[in-house]
Predict the structure.
Amino acid sequence: MPIFTPPSPALQKAWWKETIVYQIYPRSFKDSNDDGIGDLNGITEKLDYLHGLGIETLWLNPIFASPNADNGYDISDYRQIMPDFGTMEDFDRLLKETHARGMRLLLDLVLNHTSDQHPWFCEARTSRENPYYDYYLWWPEEQGHPPYRKSHFDEKGDAWCYNAPTRSYYLHYFARQQPDLNWQSPKVRAEIYDILRFWLDKGVDGFRLDSIPYIAKDTSFPEIDLRKYPDVFPYYSLGPHLHDYLHEMNREVFSRYDCTTVGEGSKTAPEEGWKFIAPERQELDMLYHFGAADIRNETEADDPATGIPYSLLALKRMYAEWDAAVGDGWPTIYLGNHDQPRMVSRFGSDAPEWRDLSAKMLTMFLLTMRGTPYWLAGDELGMTNIRFTRIEEYDDIDTRNHYRKLLREGGDTEQFLREQQEIGRDNARTPYQWDGTLYAGFSTAKPWLRVNPNHTEVNAARELCDPDSVLNFFRRAVTLRKGHPDLVYGSFRLVDADNPQVFAYLREGTGRNYLTVLNFSPKAARFDPKTDLTEAMPLLHNYPAPPIAEKEGPIELRPYEGILYRLA
Ligand code: GLC
Ligand code: CA
């Protein structure tokens, strides 16, 4: 199979390539009944606002019945709406109103695990003879203690949990309230396809499939040496038959509907990633890889003098690799989501002097790259990390259980809390900032998670009235992308690839060519376009006037300056 092939001119057009996917964390978007929790009617209320921004596709984080150990990523009934969020009638209305505006709706399905309160698991855990026992993954007690597996969220770090009635341990790669399903069972797969059909028959336009590489793992559970991280990943995910399952799911379900699919591709490298999305393999449409999310962990800053706290060279290389690796498949782009810090806090700067400029620069990046942009609600306002100082302020099971684990092991909890200010997941989950009132117009009751105090300044009501706001810049960028199909379908090529401060790329289409030039640093930068820009037309820039281009030679960029040129 081809790896690293350039896209062919025969690349198929599709609505999901042209759209921006706007991600809504329903708990945090808008509370319609003043219980402090966002809900479906709240989203319906705000559809006109979203439509006015040019948004055409919504992705909702899980809205299904759930005891909320992990805010909906532990589903106890795949065919019911979580009461906090409303009723099935509320959902039907939301879907109808979304479609009435020509918009689309994607749901987030968690298929690697269920809640431990799901009826399947309640049955399974009663006896080895129960027909549902085989729906999950077990290690029988008579074989001794199971080989160690690390859990993402467990407060002891152990992915095995002992279940006395069955005299066996069940596997949970996430929290112990999230037992892993056994995808080797044809019955489990059939149940899952039924669930997918249930929602597609209602008219939803597709799915984000949570943690999808994890559905297939080595279930012989050999002893592994965790010091060999990250070589141990194959034991956790990307295991045997993964692509058979995805192809089967496509054949049984997706191919029979007009829908799109995006798999969350944690820990998937480009060499593996293309397999999910190569059109001829008929698996998924898109893979939401972790290239950008992982960048800071793996690399150091290129040069402290640039003021960029991560390696921009690595970021550029990573996107170029993915772009090539997808071949005739289609890339995805994002810089933030409900599991990551706010994009401006992480990839730009949320210091008062740079927040607006860097948020606009990152907006240009996401909306002019090749690939479908995934946009987290609130980033269009320039929302920032909240940076809680006390563990009690956090709601997230990941943060809380890691803290407990450190307490138990005598680890450095102070250091942990400092790190969480930068990377904690709740930073991106604070309520949407609608206005400057007490609870930011999100609710009249105390919200489930504290509102960022900067909502008095960073909020939709103020920004809608300010032509220079991040919000209005976003709106302009969205309109521009829609009006220039070559910004969607044109090819991608890095320019001045070794520049440690500037991310620049050419988009070459069948009609027009475009050049995006972005200074990712808080320092002035030089950029050599290697071409004459005097005749180029600046279409979008984040300073009042674009830089002066000479016939040849480098141009000088101001901190976080971004320009999109249409080339002559
Ligand atoms: C995905 C979700 C995350 C969740 C985890 C377990 O990574 O994005 O929020 O905690 O899967 O379902
Ligand atoms: Ca509510």
